[in-house]
Amino acid sequence: MPLLPRFAIPLAAAALLTAPAAPVLAAGGPCALDGGRLKSAVRADAPAEVLQMVAAAEAGGCQGAARSTVRRQASAAIAAIARQRLAEGDAAGAEQALSEAPALHWAVIAVRGDVAASRRERAAAARYYNAAIDALTDPAVTPPGPWTDAPARTLAKLAQENMMLAGSLETTLSRGGEPTGALRYLTRGLSWDPDAPADPAPGTAGDGGTDETAQSEPTVGAQQTAEATVGSGDGAAAGVSEARIFAPIRFAFDSNTLTEEGRREAERLAAFLIVANIAHVTLVGHTDEVGDEAYNLELSRRRARSVREALLDAGVAASIVVLGKGESEPPVLTSDDAYDQEERRAIARRVEVVLEQRS
């Protein structure tokens, strides 16, 4: 069994086990857990020792918010133990460890996603990864801080990769268009002005000059993964922020005809675009590397056009630009080892939805 991709911040890292939380506990107080002992318990694969530390703290009078902090720290340590077991191929042992976690913790949920992914249960994995993002980014569950951004980005990538393989946005987007998980995280901070003009950067025609709605090619970065660039990077400096989303919209083999499931997902995406009142969308078609390069380029354009038509049919009033990239920009995956060849190709056969914000 291939090892699963590691998170941007390892679950066993001291920075995670001692993540800032309120209230700040006094050194040596009844609620202070020994970080060194926690790490030793992780290395020794000893969840019972972690739970003994929790029991001792609570017996010593640890209550209220401080008790919640202790339980979160212990749960992070148990998640690290579970992940070690999973890396050794012991999925059942990982699940057993996770069942002992004393509190809701994003890392526990994330490792449940890893377990599901190790079994190729893609819909379940996507559901857990999206739930982990919600727990990580909810200040009522996880004390906020800049440290949360790196694992949230990785979880968003894992969620999208598994949603592509499951063929559904269901775990991040309701039929009514309400986002959660990866989609809510990737579009955080974006606001939409329906009256803002579409002002793509100068360049060649995005769809070979053959599409009636295509304009000059916008600045869609090569090799850019499905991560938001909100408030950072060159886009922010230019007054443009964007979110890039993998749309798990499926087509008939070697065709731009949407399958029944593909049309369902296009309608789900349309509901989000309508509810969010998004005015400008770029659809970027991609293929895998199988077949003739020129043919794949044209197929990617036709597929992006088909998605646009489905969105318009579903009532989307946004300006939609269509681009085709063919096989030239394969996705940057969290780990090639996490997927077999056909799964990697399935993720590559994607339509990216680029949502831009202009100030």
UniProtKB/TrEMBL annotation:
Highest taxon in the source lineage: Bacteria
Claim: ATP-binding is one of the keywords in the record: no
Keyword Thylakoid recorded: no
Record Pfam families: OmpA
Annotated signal peptide: 1-26
Region (Disordered): 190-234
Subcellular locations according to the entry: Cell outer membrane
Protein name: OmpA family protein
